[in-house]
């Protein structure tokens, strides 16, 4: 019964339910519902008690009309209704008590409108139209918490960047209760929807093919809801079908996300930096996901250097993922010396948790609650949000390699390769 979190609210809700006590209201509501394109059979007999019982076992609708004529304690009954209503439901009440104080108390408790019975068709239409407008209105995030955009980039294939992106989006939406959009820009092999046991749909491919269609209504219809506060836009385009785009569609999508959500998380394949550098123009925080390996160090340096030159406004977080409990290929200390900056968060490798997450169709962060992996994921989210809130603009986008620097000057590959050969020879002996 709070304000809707975004235009359209939860994806699987019915648009309208009604619970009324008398035949006249029943017939009138069915007729007006049909006029508005809603199913007349969603108008039920039974009033407030039936509404509470029904909504305790079914999803709440977008707009709920409830008759309070038989209610002995309207305010207490409204509180009972609020306990079974999902956030975002717009409630219209009706009753026979003509009392200004009751009206004010009901509105203060979250009711959108109160109609005095008997009401007419025009009065009902106006109330439903206003409720629909309230539901479709974008949620106001408030001036103190502007939209934040986060990009997740893997330095190498297989470092777990998509797992980090889905976990970050889930944490922002579930733990921080921030309406969040997750955009998976791997249009052929993206796994964000798969990781949450969802069908990706055609939303992203439709956007690429018809960028002129992108608006608030398109976003509402195209995105797949993982929860009331998390929506995903992804694709599973045929691998025989190249996606030819100048990136304009992606930019428009991000603009619409700014209007409809508080946070956007972009799962950004590293090759997109080269093809569509403009995607980084408004990114607040970039999470560079890597492993503590020789190749990971090399490509972390390259990506950090690119970000410094092409997206100086973004604050960079380096996430070392899947760190084995034994000795990694490169120690954390040596890795940090090579990239000339610290690793912000280290996420340990846990095969059991990773396998369980895949089997359950849940994010790594959700599955790992209460473990070291889960704590690291929460720390990652807090680091990212803290970077946005930081006042020191000089710390923005700190990357390691200077433009034109030789990579060999940042990491002694020859020494590391020589050490690797000695270790190999020792094992063979």
Percent of sequence in beta strands: 15-25%
Computed over alpha carbons, the radius of gyration is: 26 Å
Uncertain residue segments? 2-11, 391-411
Number of helices: 18
Task: Calculate the mean pLDDT score and round it.
Answer: 84
E-strand count:
13
Classify the helix fraction into a percent range.
40-55%
Approximate shape: elongated
Strand order of the largest sheet: 8-9-7-10-6-11-12-13
Largest sheet: 8 strands, mixed
How many angstroms separate the termini? 72 Å
Oligomer: single chain
Structural class: alpha/beta
Describe this structure in words.
The structure is a single chain. This protein has 429 residues and is of the alpha/beta class. Helix content is 43%, strand content 16%. Strands 8-9-7-10-6-11-12-13 form an eight-stranded mixed beta sheet, sandwiched between helices. Strand 3 (63-67), helix 3 (74-84) and strand 4 (90-95) form a beta-alpha-beta unit. Helix 2 (47-55) runs parallel beside helix 3 (74-84) and helix 6 packs across helix 16 (372-389). The chain is elongated.
């Amino acid at each position: 019964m709070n304000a809707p979190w975004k235009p359209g609210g939860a994806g699987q809700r019915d648009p309208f339910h009604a619970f009324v006590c008398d035949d006249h209201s029943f017939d009138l509501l069915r007729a007006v519902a049909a006029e508005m394109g809603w199913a007349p059979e969603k108008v039920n007999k039974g009033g407030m008690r039936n509404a509470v019982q029904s909504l305790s076992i079914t999803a709440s609708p977008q707009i709920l009309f409830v008759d309070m004529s038989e209610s002995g304690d309207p305010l207490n009954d409204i509180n009972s209704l609020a306990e079974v209503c999902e956030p975002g439901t717009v409630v219209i009440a009706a009753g026979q008590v003509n009392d200004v104080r009751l009206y004010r108390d009901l509105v203060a408790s979250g009711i959108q409108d109160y109609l005095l019975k008997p009401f007419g068709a025009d009065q009902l239409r106006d109330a439903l139209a206003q409720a629909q407008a309230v539901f479709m209105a974008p949620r106001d995030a408030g001036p103190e918490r502007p939209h934040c955009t986060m990009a997740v980039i893997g330095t190498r294939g297989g470092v777990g960047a998509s797992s980090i992106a889905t976990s970050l989006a889930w944490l922002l939406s579930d733990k921080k209760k921030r309406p969040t959009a997750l955009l998976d820009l791997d249009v052929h092999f993206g796994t964000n929807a798969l990781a949450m046991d969802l069908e990706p749909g055609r939303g992203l491919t439709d956007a690429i093919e018809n960028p002129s269609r992108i608006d608030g209504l398109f976003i509402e219809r195209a995105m797949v809801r993982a929860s009331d506060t998390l929506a995903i836009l992804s694709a599973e385009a045929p691998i025989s079908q190249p996606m030819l785009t100048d990136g304009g569609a992606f930019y428009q999508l991000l603009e619409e996300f700014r209007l409809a959500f508080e946070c956007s998380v972009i799962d950004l394949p590293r090759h997109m930096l080269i093809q569509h550098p403009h995607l980084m123009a408004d990114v607040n925080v970039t999470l560079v996901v890597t492993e503590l390996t020789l190749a990971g160090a090399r490509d972390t340096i390259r990506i950090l250097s690119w970000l410094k030159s092409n997206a100086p406004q973004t604050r960079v977080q380096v996430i070392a993922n899947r760190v084995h409990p034994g000795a990694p290929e490169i120690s954390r200390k040596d890795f940090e010396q090579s990239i000339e900056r610290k690793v912000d968060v280290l996420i340990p490798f846990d095969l059991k948790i990773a396998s369980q997450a895949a089997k359950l169709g849940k994010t790594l962060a959700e599955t790992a609650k209460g473990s070291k992996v889960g704590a690291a994921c929460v720390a990652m989210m807090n680091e990212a949000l803290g970077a946005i809130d930081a006042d020191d603009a000089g710390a923005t986008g700190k990357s390691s390699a200077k433009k034109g620097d030789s990579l060999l000057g940042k990491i002694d590959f020859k020494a590391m390769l020589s050490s690797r050969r000695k270790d190999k020879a020792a094992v063979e002996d």
